[in-house]
Amino acid sequence: MTSALGPAAYEDGVYRRRYLLRADDVDMHRVLRTSRLLELVQEAAIAHTEQVGMGRRKTLDAGILWVVARQHIEVARWPRYDECIEVEAWPGPMQHVLFPRFALVRDAKGRELARSSALWLLMSARTRKMVFPAHAGVHVDGVPHGPAIPLPGALAGVADGGQAEVVVPYSACDLNGHLNNARALDLAEDRLAGPLNGVRPIAVDIDFEGEAAPGEALALSWREDGAGARVEARHDGAPVFRLAMAYPQR
To answer: CA-CA distance, 96 to 221, in Å (whole number)?
Structure first.
């Protein structure tokens, strides 16, 4: 797994950490996995909440979960095995019940590799319903930093295409008790020809609509062409997640 290079830094409201990409971080083409990129920016977002006093003691230990509602990623270049990268993360101004989060990933020379935006919210671990931040006493101030990165939007479903049923494995679930969002991305990419053949997306959007517990069956639908791919997962007819990838023009 990724090796952290030295301690994390926190300055002017921005969290930063450097990593060395190891074998578990990359795919068979020795390029950073899409799901691992997702994990890195989300781990940075959670680490930032600890820095501002809105981390585990305020949330997880109080029965409140941080969950990602939507994620948007743009990639200028995919880093490779044994490459050093730096992840920096910061929050945007709160939007009522949503917490915007932004991230930049740079190479060892400071050049931009990827940028990301996400919308997070709070959920009760007991009722599985959204928690209003004011009721939980959770507030995160926005930090003016970095380039303007568009926030993620809603995605449409997949009307037709490939179809399969997948049972959510225990190993794909996280401490929130449901299918981890990075593992959801893995499930989606496992059905696509692009990643298998070394085609890396230049943009990824994920819309998390619901939960899936271990042992539950997901109905996957997908469509793919030279421009990109779309994937949708449903449980008992209700959407769990939707994914859109844009491939580079050839």
So the answer is: 33
Cα(150)–Cα(230) distance, integer angstroms: 20
What the block records as the tokens of 209 is 């609509």
Tokens linked to 136? 């939980």
Q: Which residues, 6 or more positions from 190, have their beta carbon under 8 angstroms from its beta carbon?
A: none
Smallest CA-to-CA distance from 161 within 219, 240, 247 is with 219
DSSP calls for 73-88: EEES---BTT-EEEEE
Question: Which helix or strand (DSSP H or E) is residue 122 part of?
Answer: strand 112-124
Prediction pTM value? 0.93
Give the tens place of pLDDT for each residue, 223-232: 999 999 999 9
Per residue in 119-133, is it b (16+ CB within 10 Å) or e — as a string? Answer: bbbbbeeeeeeebeb
